[in-house]
Amino acid sequence: MIRITSLFLFLTWISQAQNFTRRDTLQGGLRPERTAFDVQRYDLNITINPDYRTVVGYNDITFKFIEKTTTIQLDLFENMKVDSILHEGKKLTYNRELDAVFIDFPADLPLNSEQKIRFYYSGKPLVAKNAPWDGGFVWKKDGNGKDFIGVAVQGTGASLWYPVKDHQTDEPDRGASVRVAVPNGLMNVSNGRFLGKEELKDGYTRWDWEVKSPINNYNIVINIADYVHIHDELNGLDLDYYVLRKNEIKARKHFEEVKPMMNCFQEKFGAYPFIEDGFKLVETPYLGMEHQSAVAYGNKYMKGYLGNDMTGTGVGMLFDYITIHETGHEWFGNSITSKDIADMWIHESFTTYSESVFVECQFGYEKAMDYINGQKMMVGNQKPIIGQFGVNFKTGNSDMYYKGALVLNTIRHMMDNDEKWWKLIRNYAETFRHQIIETKDVVDFFTKESGMNLAPVFNQYLNYKNLPELEFRTNKKSIEARWNTDVTNFEMPIEYFSNGKSTRIMVSNDWVKVPNAIATEDIQLSLNKMLVTVK
Known about the structure:
The chain is α+β, with helices and mostly antiparallel strands. The chain has twelve helices and 29 strands. The strands form seven sheets. An eight-stranded mixed sheet has the order 5-4-8-2-1-11-14-13. It is globular and about 90 Å long. Mean pLDDT is 94; it is low at 3-17.
């Protein structure tokens, strides 16, 4: 997901800091009615009426029972109507509690047997007030008065607009199809490959799409407009752009940035993880979102973030922030997904770091260090990066973006071996390709691959608000240093220049002598390589 100013996100966190409700635990928790089945595929078939802002249709949900049960939980926002739920042609009974739908089967079904239910529903999905930061539909018009419609639901929940098992632990293993009927003269663009269209003889045309890869619930998407399609290709990877008709010429020029971006990311992170589904940028009536294989683009064909450089370094104006950031999510967030949104740093920290990776590919190391260090002014240190589990809640501050990216930059320079670092990052992206993971998986992998004890480092940065504090003292005629941290057994090297010599030493929570330094004012630290404070 894209980020905004630290102040806005901190105020958002303040507004959300509350006692969690039954609705929160129903959406964020894992109870037997959820864990008893494993979703295999979604097949969505709906009609969208822009005049009445309605969605009508059904979702075929294919799943396997992996535990014995006669009741499962699916999710659909309570303002949406459940019309009926069918299994093998017979209606199932169900009970609704807030946004949860508890569906009863007449008897236990065989373990590991594949089942399918058809979930008919209808209603007016919630309208987003400020997409993509609050979830919902966006109903707008283009410059020619034609409908321009999108949806973004990360954090809010995909069940805002279609019935689904709305938890990040379960993605449809065999992908999904999205068939959407819209008024003639409009096009719908969804995830994956275009299968074809069918005129329905009622003033509507249905547009059929299919994604073969596993996909996050919040990534399944519709985009409706009078689009123009631009096709390109890069070494066997299809690149498709769907833009408003008036923007075709500028889009062709502006999206020239995509090929060097893809070359960079594939070099550093491995092959594009959804080559079977292709890559698309789709113009949207909101700023952007990492919708898998159909990345939402709304940065108005500007460099930077709506024409601004949030880092204040000038480097942010060398590229389109939305194109680079949201595409980075294809590797980090879409391919590698966190089990709980409390661990969204697994998405956002790595993706924010991918921005400086792109800068380094295109403009060199120094520019990349300027860019990532420019993000330090947006680090808040108000709350831990990791949120509360089981309640569909993340911290709501920007540290999962900037601070997390700077932690990765810190670990890179702790390793002090770029060949090993880039191998680690690529191995991480490839090892966990199409997997759902948690913080422990990341920490264990980085610790093993780096050969360093990184558990205390991750623990300090992720679970405590305070940065590691480097403290110096004079002891007789020598200088000593140590780290002040909330965690124990913290070790991190420091690199400094003193009395004409460059020195690198390991510092822990215990005092250690600082060679080649007589007075603290003699020490010039390489602070652009780490995220710390100095006492």
